[in-house]
Amino acid sequence: MQDVIKVHCFGCGSLNERGLQIKSHWAGPEELVCRWQPQPFHIGHPGVVYGGMIASVVDCHAMWTAMAAHCRDSGIEMDGTALPFAYVTGKLSVSYLKPAVIDQPLELRARVVDKGERRSTVECVVLQRGQECARAEVIAVRVQPLA
Ligand SMILES: CCCCCCCC/C=C\CCCCCCCC(=O)SCCNC(=O)CCNC(=O)[C@H](O)C(C)(C)COP(=O)(O)OP(=O)(O)OC[C@H]1O[C@@H](n2cnc3c(N)ncnc32)[C@H](O)[C@@H]1OP(=O)(O)O
Q1: CA 28 to centroid of ligand 1, rounded, Å
Q2: What is the 3-state secondary structure (H, E, C) of the chain?
Q3: Which residues does the UniProt record annotate as the domain Thioesterase (predicted)?
Q4: For position 82, which CATH number holds?
Q5: Which of 13, 38, 49, 122 sits between 20 and 30 A of 19, alpha carbons compared?
């Protein structure tokens, strides 16, 4: 999706050469997946991914999950033309369940579990080698497009 909507966002922006360049894809009727390979400088404790990086990747993937689900529900094409809304993070809550090692990719699986008028609650699991290493709940709020 990030290939068609080009933004500068640190998490997903293809226009941000210093960003994480994450990409989110539908992986079933309700779930979006994102795979991200940590780099050696994303380290916290020796050999372990810094937790704040995991939160960043979760944050961005959750916003795209909210946006993609809303576009699907509203019949809006994500074809690269400017969208009439944006999603911002209202709340981000991460439970770190197991250390994530620095040299293995992370897989994020997210879905919208509840939706209000402008709020989407997104649940995201973070897997490494098939094991759940973190779980998050994210509140995404739909706003007018930001300049
Ligand atoms: C070709 C070009 C295309 C361009 C397309 C552009 C699209 C770009 C696409 C992709 C970009 C990449 C993706 C981005 C990723 C980055 C993510 C970030 O880093 S975001 C920055 C950090 N977050 C902020 O800066 C928010 C700061 N906070 C605020 O602005 C407000 O507090 C805001 C908007 C969150 C809420 O304020 P209110 O006054 O508008 O709305 P109220 O009435 O308070 O809440 C609305 C709903 O949200 C819930 N809500 C709000 N905050 C909540 C919270 N903290 N906890 C729980 N619920 C909350 C409320 O309960 C309400 O829910 P109910 O609709 O009634 O169900």
Answers
A1: 26
A2: CCCCCCCCCCCCCCCCCCCCCCCEEECCCCCEEEEECCCHHHECCCCEECHHHHHHHHHHHHHHHHHHHHHHHHCCCCCCCCCCCEEEEEEEEEEECCCCECCCCEEEEEEEEEECCCEEEEEEEEEECCEEEEEEEEEEEEECCCC
A3: 47-131
A4: 3.10.129.10
A5: 122
Identify the domain containing residue 31 by its residue range.
Answer: 24-143
Question: Pairing mode, if any, of strands 32-36 and 106-115?
Answer: antiparallel
Residue 106 lies in a domain: yes
CA of 86, closest atom in ligand 1: 7
Return the residue matching tokens 């997903």. Answer: 12
pLDDT digits (tens, 9 = 90+) for 108-136: 999 999 999 999 999 999 999 999 999 99
Query: pLDDT, tens digit, for every residue of 36-69?
Result: 999 999 999 999 999 999 999 999 999 999 999 9
User: Distance from the CA of 118 to the center of ligand 1, in angstroms?
Assistant: 8
Contact between residue 21 and residue 34 where contact means Cβ atoms under 8 Å apart: no
